[in-house]
Specification:
Helix content: 55-70%
Largest sheet: 4 strands, antiparallel
Radius of gyration: 25 Å
Distance between the termini: 65 Å
Number of helices: 8
Strand content: 5-15%
CATH topology of the largest domain: Serine Threonine Protein Phosphatase 5, Tetratricopeptide repeat
Number of domains: 3
Order of helices and strands: HHHHHHHHEEEEEE
Length: 244
């Protein structure tokens, strides 16, 4: 009996100390990253923040700080990708959005797609996909409850306020549904950021001629995959070609 009690206590202590040890390790790495950044060792700071991301890939602050380090080091494609990951996790942060736009400008691209005002792009990214889906479900339930009250509890008696509220909640549901569907479709399109200059060919073969060269730091849309080749199109110029 004493042996089982001792074994149980040891197991509990092990389970409780593991998260604390992991948190202490991450805190130590975070402090080292901050110290390296203050000392001007930006690439070393970025490496430390990358370690934090490996341990906790949901930490948007680590993506943002690593992006700051790469931006200071002049590596704009890396900064652009890290800022983008932070932006997708926290699109309402003005710091992340402003630095993302700055990194895109430094890389020769733009944050918003061509022809879209920045304010509209920020509005489009106001909610992440999971938040829009959650709000969509909330308004669906509100609409369903309002209709049930109107047609079953009140037995279709006049209820102007309830009718207006039902119409409003249904409109919110429809808007959020289309918003979430648009984000889901955009996420499936397959975007990436070129970290090195890319040589585009007219087809998926080394024997085919090179049509153009795309500079690093460009947003490109992946249209098709064929073995180790990608058919891509730049978002800014609309240039299309095969890249390996």
């Amino acid at each position: 009996m004493k042996f089982l009690t001792l074994l149980t206590l040891l197991t509990l202590l092990t389970l409780l100390t593991k998260p604390v040890a992991a948190e202490d390790r991450l805190a130590a790495v975070w402090n080292e990253a901050a110290e390296a950044y203050r000392g001007g060792n930006y690439l070393q700071a970025a490496e430390y923040y990358s370690r934090v991301i490996q341990e906790n890939n949901a930490c948007w602050q680590a993506y943002y700080n690593a992006g700051n380090a790469y931006l200071k080091a002049g590596n704009y494609p890396e900064a652009l990708e890290l800022y983008w990951r932070a932006f997708k996790s926290n699109p309402r942060s003005s710091l992340v959005a402003d630095n993302l736009a700055l990194a895109a400008q430094k890389a020769g691209d733009s944050l918003a797609p061509p022809g879209m005002p920045m304010a509209l792009y920020r509005l489009w990214n106001l909610l992440i996909l999971e938040e829009s889906i959650a709000l969509c479900l909330v308004f669906w339930w509100i609409s369903a409850v309002a209709l049930w009250i109107k047609y079953f509890w009140l037995e279709r008696r006049p209820a102007p306020v309830l009718t207006k509220f039902s119409i409003f909640s249904s409109a919110c549901f429809l808007f959020l549904f289309l918003f979430a569907a648009g984000h889901a479709a955009a996420g499936r399109r397959g975007w990436m950021i070129l970290k090195v200059p890319g040589l585009l060919r007219s087809g998926p073969s080394e024997s085919l001629p090179i049509t153009t060269q795309i500079p690093e730091g460009r947003y490109v849309h992946i249209i098709e995959k064929k073995e180790s080749w990608l058919l891509i199109e730049t978002r800014k110029e609309g240039i299309r070609g095969w890249l390996r």
